[in-house]
User: Fold this.
Amino acid sequence: MATQISTGTSELRDITKMERIGAHSHIRGLGLDDRLEPRANSQGMVGQAKARKAAGMILKLVQEGRIAGRAMLFAGPPSTGKTAIALGMSQSLGPDVPFTMIAASEVFSLSMSKTEALTQAFRRSIGVRIKEETEIIEGEVVELQIDRSLTGATKTGKLTIKTTDMETIYDLGTKMIDALAKEKVTAGDVIAIDKTSGKVSKLGRSFARSRDYDAMGADTKFVQCPEGEIQKRREVVHTVSLHEIDVINSRTQGFLALFAGDTGEIKPELRNQINTKVAEWREEGKAEIVPGVLFIDEVHMLDIECFSYLNRALENELAPLVIMASNRGMARVRGTKIRSPHGLPVDLLDRVLIVSTKPYTETDIEEIIKIRCEEEDVKLTDSALQVLTTMAGQTTLRYALNLISTSQMLARKRKSDKVDVEDLRRSYTYFMDEKRSVEWIKMQEGSLIFEEISQAEAGREESMDF
Ligand SMILES: Nc1ncnc2c1ncn2[C@@H]1O[C@H](COP(=O)(O)OP(=O)(O)O)[C@@H](O)[C@H]1O
Ligand SMILES: [Mg+2]
Assistant:
């Protein structure tokens, strides 16, 4: 059967790539030099040298396309930079290499099964680089004439376009007129129209029109009127993920679903068809697989069914590199009574490269606080910096970083542009860290409502014994 599989256009990528930053917005890479040695303070990264180097080595293998279907695990206490390093890795990947980040708890949703959610995450992380020949129309617009029907419902028009060698008139339908209107195309523009997708791009204004200063903005770009044929064939390369191909070709969804982000479940038969098609394209040299990276944060939140899915999926020919992070020591594997390192079943652990992250030294903490202050445009007095560093040591780094913006608010209230010890002290009384919160809960016994947990479950379910 000759199935028609469409791959959409490269524009889709920008829309579906979601960035989740905020706490990690200062991270711009792993901060390694050419020999993969960690620099002391670079690309927003400080300390955690061994883990960064290990991450860099794995990254290198990914970039060379030499690693896929493997898994690595960042294991370490909370606030030791596991998520930060994973994001650093994602920023060092090329724009073409897919990187997907999920928190394990996202897998448990009402709208789709756990395995479907994981399958989608896997397929988001595999890119297909497709070479296509498209026909484009390229030239300088001589005239654009649009006629509206009396009601305005239908439009017809004519586009006269030229190169230095020839001139042609095209009839326009409503869709093309809208596309031209959206790009605000007028006579004198040099444009390219992709004939398959109908996409119009403005390349600039023709030099011949450079005297029409009334039609010129400060950022107007002037280009030469193209030479030769108006219609040209051109090879274009774009990368889409397998998941995007799935969604675009799913009849019930259509590619609008990608904009809504609500893709629902996708039928296995369709995925099989797509896999077959992609394999065909690879054989014909039309497509290349770009294995990307899937990052599963807080992976101990997955249950045994998910873990066995992971085990199987990693065997698949089309598997990305899977990076996981866990802050558990010995913990119960969810859905079982078994306790296992990091809350991962041993058969999965067995195939995983484990990289451990360690608590930061005081100097590292101070550096990270400084970086965050710069990122958030906050000034600390020297003594405030010292106090915050000590606080981070006693609570967690993340707690201390959170106090930066709240303290700044308090500093502003007293009309100061520098955060001082007093602001930190007040923030500290407003917002509890984990330790104090636990103590407070103990003190409130009787007046807070607690969820009932069965005796068996309550029996030391998880512990963090790093
Ligand atoms: N090595 C580092 N360099 C710079 N910032 C870091 C580093 N490690 C952690 N951070 C920052 O500290 C905070 C806590 O780290 P995070 O990666 O969330 O810890 P984890 O995921 O291990 O719990 C985040 O804001 C993170 O960006
Ligand atoms: Mg984390």
Observations:
- The two ends are 56 Å apart (CA to CA).
- The chain is about 35% helix and 20% strand.
- Residues 36 and 56 are 6 Å apart (CA to CA).
